[in-house]
Amino acid sequence: MNLRSIFFVIFNILFVSSIQCQVAPDDVIYLKSGTFLRGKIVDSVPGKSFRIALIKGKDTLEIQRNDISVITKEVAPNDPFSKYHDRNRVWIYFFMAEINAGFGQIRDDLVYNNTIKSQRSINLNVLNGFNINPYLQLGIGAGIDFWNKLVFVPVYADFRVTILQRNTTPFIFLNGGYSFGFLNSAPDGFGGVTAGAGGGVKIEISQNRILVISLGYRLQQTRQVQPNYPLMIHRDTQFIVLKMGLEF
Description:
Layout: H1 3-17, E1 26-31, E2 36-45, E3 49-54, E4 60-64, E5 68-74, E6 92-109, E7 115-131, E8 136-146, E9 151-162, E10 168-182, E11 191-206, E12 209-225, E13 232-247
Antiparallel strand pairs: 1-2, 1-5, 2-3, 3-4, 6-7, 6-13, 7-8, 8-9, 9-10, 10-11, 11-12, 12-13
C-alpha cells in the first residue's frame, strides 16, 4: 500500500466515524415544584409512583404520581463538556486519532556544504490522555511520520489548553518528545528530538465526539552516521503543520 492509499484510508476512517449517530431519548419527569429529573424509568405503579434511574449518577429515585406535572421523552442537549456532569469532575480519559500534513525545510549541517532543501511530511498519530479539568488536557502520543525517503516513529507528551466552554472553542497546544528514524540506505538511521506548538479550534459534532483542526510549528532534529566517513550529519527540519483529528 503506497502513501496515497494510506492517506485515503485514514481520511475516510476519521470522517465516516464522525457522522453523528442517532441518540436514544431520555425519560424526563417534570415535577410540580419546577424541577425535573432526566434518566430512564425502570418501574412504575399505575396511578401511584414511578422509579427513575438518573443519567447523572447511579441513584434511582421513586417519585409519587401526585408530585409529577408531566412525563416526556427528550434527546439530551448537546453539551460540549458533557463528560463533566457537575463541571468539577477530573481525570476523564480521551482518545484522539489525527492526520497531519507538514511543509518545511531541512538543513544539512555539514562543515563544507551547508544546504537547505524543501521537505514535506504526512504524519498519522494517536493520542491517549486525560482531561484534567474542562480546560486542560494531558496526553501521550505516538505515530508514524512519512518523509520523502525517511520514516519516523515519534513518541511525545502533549499538553492542551481549551479556552472556552462552548460547542466550538479555540485551543492551544504544546508537545515534545523523540522520533525514531529509519532509512533503508543508512542502517545507522535517523532520529532526534521533536517539538511543536500551535493553536486551533475544537468543534463538537456529536455527544463525546469532537473534530479538532489546528495549525502549528514543528521542529524535528535528525542525525545520520555516514557509512564511508567518520562523520555525523545533523539535520534540523522546521515545518508548518496542518492537523485534523477526531477526539472521543
